[in-house]
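Chapter summary example.
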Amino acid sequence: MNAPSLFGTVGVILQLLIVVALSPVLTGLMRQIRALLEGRAGSGIAQPWRDLRKLMRKQRTSPRGTTEVFRVAPLLLVATCLVVTAVAPFVTTASALDPVADLFAVVALLTLGTVALALAGLDTGTAFGGMGASRETTIIALVEPTMLVAIFALSVPVGSTNLAAIVTSGLDDPAQVFSPVSLLAAVALIVVIIAETGRLPVDNPSTHLELTMVHEAMVLEYSGPDLAMVELASSMRLTVFLGLLANLFVPWGIATSASPLLIAVGVLAFVVKVAFLGGCLAVGEVFLAKLRLFRVPELLAGSFVLGLLAVAASFFLA
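The structure predicted for these 318 residues follows.
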């Protein structure tokens, strides 16, 4: 195995270990920040891992009448998160799976996991499952095009839709990071992350109110190890989206060579950036109220317009 391949393989392994191990910790950190700002003690940043361990010890159950769609959805959700984690430029710009690190492939994989969960909600045949799946499908239809055009705007000056190439270009030419194109694309992508991960004001991850929940409505019938996989995948998706936001718009710190010191710096930079963005998201949620459901498409349509403006600006300013 040559040096670049070894470097890419090490990067893939590191990214998988970091995202899988620290994603629940990120969720716990965000919950703890919200608790402190709301005057509560909180349960600690390690509570999500304790919850996952407890769920893994319970018996797996399936509602009567469900098919393989319901049982396979958690596995598919986790698998798509793992593939995106392996190919995306989080710790290093090199990857043993670099051809897969394409904008359209990554967005398709993330969408596949969401669609699998929505189909599982429909497969239960319950009113809540169908309601959550319907709402999630509406959000997906507006969010995925926004994600595509926002990142595509960054790829126009680079001439490639490969995520590692976009990050490397930002390292080589810092002026791109501070351009109007990046600003418009960043705002659009932030709205996408809020909607995709079910955060306020689009969804409230800490409630189970029948008339407001979206993500929780689709997973009400899951229990035991299946619910643990869904919860782990939700935390991983949040980490993946925040990692993409961090390295696409603030690429500094990512390792570009096989130096152990640079790889260590890349790991530290990724953890710090994701934790900072997660903390900012948690602080913002304290001061936000959930939007009414019929207002959510307006917010997402606005983010799509920002993405289109970023694409137009990238051609005019190129």
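To summarize the output: Residues 52 and 228 are 5 Å apart (CA to CA).
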